[in-house]
Amino acid sequence: MKTPKTSYSAPALEKAVEILELMAEHPDGMLVSEMSVALGRSVGELFRIVVVMERLGLLRRSTRTDRYTVAYRLLDLAYRATPAQNLVGAALPEMKALAFATGQSCHLVVASAGEGLVIAREQQPGVRGFSLRVGAHVDIIQSCSGQVILAFSTDQAADQIISALEAARSQTIDRDWLAKRRAETRARGYELRQSPITYGVTDISYPVLGFDGTIVAALTIPFLELIDGSQKVDQDAARELLAQAVATISDTLGFQPASPAPASAARRA
Which terminus of the chain has fewer Cβ atoms in its 10 Å neighbourhood, N or C? Predict the structure, then answer.
């Protein structure tokens, strides 16, 4: 996808970004000739860029097929250069403990333009389960994680997310309906709903809060209820354990919940 031209131009950088975006859609890799066809550019103008990106560790070439894929160095750079590093570092130990205690998978979702993006996951320790992969995009309107992100975002942040979604989909979102949903979820403190995609899965999601009290992510359990009832804990217990995990992660990130007013002050009021 070519980016719109501005008053400044860096053709080589723009081509490199186009290649990375294309690679994200082809995790099995591509030949330079295939990139050329997909991007509508000549092999000659892409080959030098690809070779340099390989030398810098951004792409890797299979010695067996000559196909290029995105290298893990890009993920490492993204984690070290963005707030996701601290968030994931704080969340992963609690996610691992949560998956073990509940026997269910869990995943961490952040807002990314008009979508939700899975930046970490922990799979259940058993042989049966359901999970989303890291890097998966989720519908910010329909998903449980998305509802939590929107509900606990400021009005300005939520408006920016919805505006980005409307621009991407070329459609208008019913903001009155959405405002009502946000208020309901915020009052409840979490979201719980049947998965809109998978039978037998109930999504449960809580907000992870940062030091300033704003939401930084949603931690979600896609609770899989087995026909024979052999899941480790029931849905209510899983929700309580999820709430505890989120409270611990938020505390690690510096969030301090408001202290309740003393009883004497409440009586005076």
Answer: C
The separation between the first and the last C-alpha atoms of the chain, rounded to the nearest angstrom, is 60
Token pair recorded at residue 101: 């205690």
CATH number for 82-252 (one of 3.30.450.40, 3.40.50.300, 3.50.70.10, 2.60.40.770): it is 3.30.450.40
Task: Tokens for 145, please give them.
Answer: 């994680």
Cβ contacts of 46-53, under 8 Å, gap ≥ 24: 46/15, 46/19, 49/12, 49/15, 49/16, 49/19, 50/19, 53/16, 53/19
Residue 165 to residue 104: CA distance in whole angstroms: 30
> Mind listing the pLDDT tens digit of every residue in the chain (269 residues)?
555 555 678 889 999 999 999 998 888 899 999 999 999 999 999 999 999 999 999 999 998 899 999 988 887 777 666 655 688 889 999 999 999 999 999 999 999 878 899 999 998 876 665 667 888 888 899 899 999 999 999 999 999 999 988 888 888 888 899 999 999 999 999 999 988 777 678 999 999 998 888 899 999 999 987 766 667 788 999 999 999 999 999 998 888 887 655 554 444 44
Whether CATH 1.10.10.10 fits 11-76: yes
